[in-house]
Write the structure tokens for this entry.
Amino acid sequence: MSGVPWENAALSAEQRLAVAADLGRQVRRVHALRPSGIVTDAGWPPPNVAAAAERSSLPPHLVEQVDDYLARLEPFDRVFVHGDLTGRHAFVENGRLTGIIDWGDAIVTDRHYELCQLHRAAFRCDKALLRVFLDACDWPVGKDFPRQALGLALHRQARGLAQHHTMDVFEPVAAVLPLHDIATLDELATELFAV
């Protein structure tokens, strides 16, 4: 793969936007695939999302809300997802995307599962990058988009702990947002994902 990981690239603000758009176009193509023989979330044992949230950077008052929050999610919009789009897995050269590596977490699940790693690890919670990505991806952004995105971030936390035992998808978020001052998970969803 030519280039370097996004997290190691010295990109200008304009180049970051261009790479976010490139990523959106590629993810749109990935989500349109109809793979066979790929694991689906239906094959997973039910995750204990609240217990996984307790092992994250979320403060206790937000963890207490997890079960009620998840009960309000929309039905899953299942597509083929990379599942671990981070700044290490998107390669860039000359200010453009050259490829995406590490497909070991690819799965068929809700499309919003894709966003957590990308938004926190590559975009560093920059909503301008998220908006450009979503537009290029032709992502269906409805009124419940922030709630669904955070709900699947909670699922990603649970899946990550099951795989790696040390996952904390909310650690970079805690560095950007004052989580102890955010009263509800809906408020956190808005802070993170409302575009």
About this structure: Residues 13-32 form the longest helix (20 residues). The chain has one domain: 4-193. The CA atoms of residues 56 and 168 lie 5 Å apart.
